[in-house]
Amino acid sequence: MATATDLARPRTHRTHRAPGALRAPFEARAWRELLHVVTGMPLACVFFSYAVVMVSAGAGLLITFLGVPVLAAGLAGCRGVGVLERLRARTLLDVDIAEPEPVRALQRRGGPMPWMGALLRSGVSWRHLLYTLLHFPWALFTFVVSVSFFSSAWALTLYPAWQWVFPRHLGQPGIRLGPDGATIDGTTRIGGTYVDSPPEIALTCAAGLVLLLATPWIVRGLTQIDRLMVLGLLGPSPLATRVRELESDRGSVADTAAADLRRIERDLHDGAQARLVTLAMDLGLAKEKLLEDPQAAADMVDEAHGEVKLALQELRDLARGIHPAILTDRGLGPALSALATRCTADVTITVDLPQRPAQAIEGITYFTASELLQNITKHSTAHTAHIDLWKTDDRLLLHVTDDGKGGAHTNTGTGLAGLTDRLTAVDGLLLIHSPTGGPTTITAELPWRV
Is the CB of residue 388 less than 8 Å from the CB of residue 441? Predict the structure, then answer.
């Protein structure tokens, strides 16, 4: 997502006069994919041989104690193969793949035996072994197809440049098309025709050019299978990925809760607590002057009464910031309407909810809307804003737009970044579209139930 600075800066795009189909044979991507295919075949041969030997030896020796370490060493080697293959995929195929769970994370204690047990229990290890076995025939097939197409395409395209080799060194006018010579009635007859006339040479060159233009796309289609194999067998499992996401979300929730507690403590210390201390001091002074100067004591009590009202208002605002009573009693519609009255822009609200969502989702939605309206008041200089809230399938969507100056981004402050973390913790999503000059459109998507 672009920042406000990026949006303000004029961008220059590199234009190409030739279409992509004509540029493909000369682009770096095509050569990287071909390099992946060419280097993959010899590597696959070595990896396949290693996997077959080690797994066969380990399985055969399982009747003795030696089979376990041999099989574990084979699986460890396959995981090393995965490291190299992920590196090749990132470098040559532009595949963004995460590292799988390491073996040490599966160990309950140190030592060689727990390490071997973790290797044998790990589904990642066996998926790496499966990749090593399946990749060999596929790498051999893609190597033969890609190299054959590539070499034939360039040979035919450049045929006019090397056609002179045939008459000078081979004793024939050019490439022969058709069957070889046959012996009939004891006489050898030359079969086929030769490509030696200018029209035939031009036609051969044109056919080579067509094949040259098609070869990068053929290789790209073949390497798509390599990408799928790497992502499916060498990356982390969906379950492990989900566990990592939940751990990250748990950390975000803990950080958010800690930040909220610090905010509440700060508001109490700097607000209501300070006023109550002042109130106690004023009442103490009024008590001392009650007999000496009743009028001065009455004035002090009157000031203390004003301080009590302010302290009560601050406590109400603080309680509303923790969880507003109107949200608990009447739901999101009235609660958002109460929020809109505190925004400097003219806010209109549309709520279309068949029923109330889960209480936790309702609270997150409320505080998301509150943060967005505060941003409108503090930063956008908007005159009008609109809030849409509706349910679609099992998702709750909050859509906030304003006609302000735009430039909102998660990198420009802590507010939107905190909202993103809070929504991510419940499998939510925050989408921001805020070009410089406006308007700003922010959509929050949350699950209906948690």
Answer: no
- Nearest CA among 336, 347, 334 for reference residue 404: 347
Report the C-alpha gap between 82 and 236 in whole angstroms.
Answer: 11
Mean confidence (pLDDT) of the chain: 78
Element spanning 188, H or E: strand 187-189
Q: At what angle do helices 414-424 and 359-375 cross, to 10 degrees?
A: 160
Least confident of 43-52, 134-143, 326-335, 410-419: 410-419
Distance from first CA to last CA of the chain, Å, rounded?
28
Contact (CB, 8 A) for 230 and 40: no
- Please tell me the distance from the alpha carbon of residue 219 to that of residue 145, in angstroms, as a whole number: 8
Measure the CA–CA gap between 128 and 233, rounded to whole angstroms: 6
Beta carbons of 446 and 398 less than 8 angstroms apart: yes
Tens digits of per-residue pLDDT, 315-341? 666 655 566 777 777 888 888 888 888
Residue ranges of E strands in 279-363: 346-352
128-156 pLDDT, tens digit per residue, is 999 999 999 999 999 999 999 999 888 88
* DSSP secondary structure code for residue 27 in this structure: S
- DSSP E strands in 102-186: the ranges are 175-177, 182-184
Q: How far apart are CA 396 and CA 86, in angstroms?
A: 38
Query: Which residues does 149 contact at the CB level (< 8 Å), separation at least 6?
Result: 211, 214, 215, 218, 219
Q: Coil, strand or helix: which one is 432?
A: strand
The amino acid at residue 267 is D
The residues pairing with 139 across neighbouring beta strands, listed in sequence order, are none
Query: Rounded to the nearest 10 degrees, how much is the dihedral formed by the CA atoms of 281, 287, 290, 294?
Result: 30
Which residues 6+ apart lie within 8 Å of 9 measured at CB? none
Which residues are paired to 430 by β-bridges?
Answer: 444
Question: What tokens were used for 113?
Answer: 């035996």
- Token readout for 246 is 């939940």
